[in-house]
Amino acid sequence: MSGRHLPVSGVAVTGAGTAGGGGMADGIRRWNRRTLLRRTALLTGGVALGAAGAVESTWIADRRLPIAGGPASATLGNRHQQVGSGAVEVVWGVRTDERLLALTFDDGPRPEWTTMVLDTLERYDVPATFFMVGSRAREHAAVVRGRLGRHEVGNHSWAHRDLARMDAETAYEDLRRSHEAIAEATGMAPRLLRPPWGHLGGAVLHAAARLDYRLVLWTLQMVEGTFPHDIAGHAKRIIGDVQPGTILLAHDVGTEQRLVALRGLPDMITGLRDRGYTFVTVSQLLRHGAAV
């Protein structure tokens, strides 16, 4: 038992002596301090080496991933970039002193929902921008054909999958396919893109530039979950939150909960007009102010 403690006692006696008056306890404290400093230095060096190793490992791992042309990359290969006009704009809304707002609908078309929205907009003479899913536009072309005279359309991907997880070529093919389906169904070629969930990545930017799109997100979104059974309350909340230059996001496809917003469109439209607001399409709004 004592043999296991001899090295500690020996060090303590040698470091302390008897003249200093500190005895074994002070020696042990000094030994502990020296050991701690030495081990801290070794540990610090190890951490530094470990950090360098981690960086090196990450760099090596990244080289094995499809970074070039992958979801994170806004460039494709080392040849000349085929990117349309060579630039892409991203907007959330506009700065303007005019009481203008753009009403937008995502995820359609769908027969019951989109028809309800179009009927309401026609009754109140309100233009809107519909960001359509290409596969749904192809399937439900009859819902929108001939009914979009005052409206405009945008691209919302082919099947509402996350474009930000796709590589550059896959994202481009998805949007190109959707573009063609929307143009065929509506007779209008989309010039705007809203990626699903607003997810952006380098590949999305690259694909948008190739298709000469403007990327449009939103300033304000319907909050149906806060007013699940209160149509008037939801409309009042949105009316209070709108500011000049707002791009307002709604959906003409979804769960039953979202119908709170759609059924409240008449109250919302009337209330905003009472506050002096004019409804315009997204493209019209962008012509009236600076993007934010």
- State which percent range the strand residues make up: 5-15%
CATH superfamily of the largest domain: Glycoside hydrolase/deacetylase
Percent helix, as a range, is 40-55%
Count of extended strands: 11
Largest sheet: 6 strands, parallel
Number of structural domains: 2
CATH architecture designation of the largest domain: Alpha-Beta Barrel
- Global structural class: alpha/beta
- Rg estimate, integer Å: 31 Å
The number of helical runs is 11
Q: How many angstroms does the end-to-end distance come to?
A: 76 Å
Segments where pLDDT lies below 50 for 5+ residues? Answer: 1-31
Structure notes:
There is one protein chain. The protein is α/β, with parallel strands linked by helices and 292 residues long. It has two domains: 2-64, no CATH class; 90-291, TIM Barrel (Alpha-Beta Barrel). 47% of the residues lie in helices and 13% in strands. It has helices at residues 6-16, 23-64, 111-124, 134-139, 141-144, 168-186, 202-210, 231-241, 259-263, 265-274, 282-286, and strands at 90-91, 94-95, 100-106, 129-132, 152-155, 192-193, 214-216, 220-221, 246-251, 278-280, 290-291. Strands 3, 4, 5, 8, 9 and 10 form a six-stranded parallel β-sheet that branches. A three-stranded parallel β-sheet has the order 1-7-6, covered by helices on one side. The protein is globular, with a radius of gyration of 31 Å.
